[in-house]
């Protein structure tokens, strides 16, 4: 078990380009496992590479069961690409492990189709999925494009969050 350090907003690591993954080896499996360990440690449902300082196109997701338990729906999603966004634009109450302790409402599409590769390199897709899973996919794939959910908020809120989390980041480094 290896819990990695989570990169906190507004760290520039979250804005860097994320490279396509071309090698599907043991290192990749270890990285995915560390990402799950880190995600569970901080009680998340999704985590993207840049959030642990790995600027590569990898996402892990585990949507909880109805009783809140996790572990049954583990997905390792490599090189994902949104190929279709469909349905209404819906309000979504979100949080992010890189913005700890903060939640706010942003907008997402209701349904999404994503092409990706699994941890072995096989080509796969999620076709026209909806609900929390669709929202989570959009949130995590945004991370791979250098975006954080709070980018959607008003300029005033963003300024306030930047100040608050820069302070938290500095305190953590001390
Ligand atoms: Ni996030």
Describe this structure in words.
The two termini are 26 Å apart. The protein has 3 helices and 5 strands. By secondary structure, it is α+β, with helices and mostly antiparallel strands. Nickel (II) ion is lined by residues 96, 98, 139, 143. Nickel (II) ion binds at residues 96, 98, 139, 143.
Topology:
Blueprint: H1 26-41, E1 46-48, E2 58-62, E3 74-96, E4 99-117, E5 123-129, H2 131-144, H3 155-173
Antiparallel strand pairs: 1-2, 2-3, 3-4, 4-5
The chain binds nickel (II) ion.
Residues 96, 98, 139, 143 line the site of nickel (II) ion.
Summarize the biggest pleated sheet: 5 strands, antiparallel
Distance between termini?
A: 26 Å
What best-fitting shape do the alpha-carbon axes yield? globular
Count of helices? 3
Secondary structure tally: strands: 5
N-to-C series of helices and strands: HEEEEEHH
Q: Order of strands across the widest beta sheet?
A: 1-2-3-4-5
Bound molecules: nickel (II) ion
Mean pLDDT reading = 97
Indicate the proportion of strand residues.
25-35%
Q: Assign the structural class, choosing from mainly alpha, mainly beta, alpha/beta, alpha+beta, or little secondary structure.
A: alpha+beta
**Over the alpha carbons, how many angstroms does the gyration radius reach?**
16 Å
Q: What is the multimeric organization of the chains shown?
A: single chain
Residues in helices, as a percent range: 25-40%
Low-pLDDT windows of residues? none
């Amino acid at each position: 078990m290896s819990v990695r350090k989570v990169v906190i907003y507004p760290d520039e690591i979250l804005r860097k380009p994320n490279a396509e993954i071309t090698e599907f080896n043991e290192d990749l499996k270890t990285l995915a496992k560390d990402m799950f360990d880190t995600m569970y440690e901080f009680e998340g449902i999704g985590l993207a590479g840049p959030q642990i300082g790995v600027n590569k196109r990898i996402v892990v997701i585990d949507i909880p069961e109805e009783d809140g338990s996790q572990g049954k729906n583990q997905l390792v999603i490599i090189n994902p690409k949104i190929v279709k966004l469909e349905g209404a634009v819906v309000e979504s109450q979100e949080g992010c492990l890189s913005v700890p302790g903060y939640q706010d409402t942003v907008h997402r599409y209701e349904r999404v189709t994503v092409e990706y590769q699994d941890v072995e390199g096989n080509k796969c897709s999620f076709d026209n999925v909806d609900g929390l899973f669709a929202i989570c996919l959009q949130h995590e794939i945004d991370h791979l494009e250098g975006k954080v959910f709070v980018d959607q908020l008003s300029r005033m809120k963003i300024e306030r969050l930047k100040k608050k989390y820069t302070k938290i980041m500095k305190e953590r480094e001390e």
